[in-house]
Amino acid sequence: MNVLYCSEKCQTTDWPAHKLQCGQGKTDRIDLKQFYPFLACLAEVGRFSRHKPGNPAQNHVILNNPVPTTEVCSLPDGSSANLVLLGEKAPQTPDLDPWWPSAATSPIRSKLYRRIQREGYLLPLLMAVSIGLLREMYTSTPEGPTGRRVRLRHGKSPIADFGIAKGKVRVTNQDRLAYFYLEDHTFELGQDPDEHYWFYFKTLSGQKLTLDVGMFTFNMCIAVLGEPYCKEIPTDFGIRPASAPAFFVDPQMAHFWTALATTFKECSILRNEELQKAVTSPEVDWKAVFNFMKELSGKPPTDVDKNIVKDVSSRSCRAMANVIQKRSYLSWPEDPDTPIERDPEEAKCPPGCRDDDQEWMKYAAKWHRRFNRGSISREDLREAIRKFVGRREKEAGQV
Length: 399
Prior knowledge:
Helix 2 crosses helix 8. The N and C termini lie far apart (about 75 Å). The strands form three sheets. Strands 1, 5, 6, 9, 10, 13 and 14 form a seven-stranded mixed beta sheet that branches. The chain contains ten helices and 14 strands. A hairpin with a 4-residue loop joins strand 7 and strand 8. The chain is globular, with a radius of gyration of 23 Å. By secondary structure, it is of the alpha+beta class.
């Protein structure tokens, strides 16, 4: 029996009675930690929608060296960012060398390209994935030979609400991008960290969890591997990503997210009656969907936003239905692999150190473990490296 509640309090009050009828033996309760990589992969697939415009910076030759260690540039609005200086049109080939000829290495070139590629249109992507989750998991009746439904949980507590939050994230000036085009002397800001969006989830026991899929462009390059989650993404989608940006924050990591992000507004997807009606209709009521986006962002979605939502939500629903019907999630790892792509230059030994320097290797390993756990920020990591180099230089001067 599917029941939708108006609030967490109402659901908690009714749970003793409802759990006797809800067919727990026929419900797969999958931990969000096990399921969130699939949501991140759907958002990543959406970035390659034919309705999502490419970033013009991908089509122009880079003339400077916009790596995170470069000195930042003051912008017309009074802020600062890492300026990407763009010249003539770049040839469109799989080889990225002509796009950024002066890049020190191929990994540095590739990483910047992917950061730029993932800029923008975050709200439409989150909205589209949310529609797939709401329609296929939370408002559909069980179908197929098993007749089973799927519900998310965290630990032993059911997910009682999920939605999209709007806020700002703390980003260093070195990790924020801006663009200047020499051919027409135009200036553009990159993705704005002061207008950021992410998924939130709340459990019946009152815990909150966060999934952010938009920080890669700000050089916070935490990801999940595409396998095994992309096996159920239809081949006609055109891409099955090898990895997808994903920063998952459970209650144990909440202190780190609090330091990184400031929430302005949260809008529930699961408890929005208009959205529930909109997505369960034979034809989706897009007006209700776009009104939700306007309420959250404070401005009406553009035509491009609307087209992305329509296209990517259709794909998300198909992929979500495949996963639920085949119960693919039963074979997914309980503890997903979340590699962190460091700046290529961070992997090098700093001045005054050697590759076989045991003190440096232990020091670097300790601080990178802290960064990988989310205990420190990227700037904290860089500062630790600078302190080590400073101490070595001071010791060398005393010899």
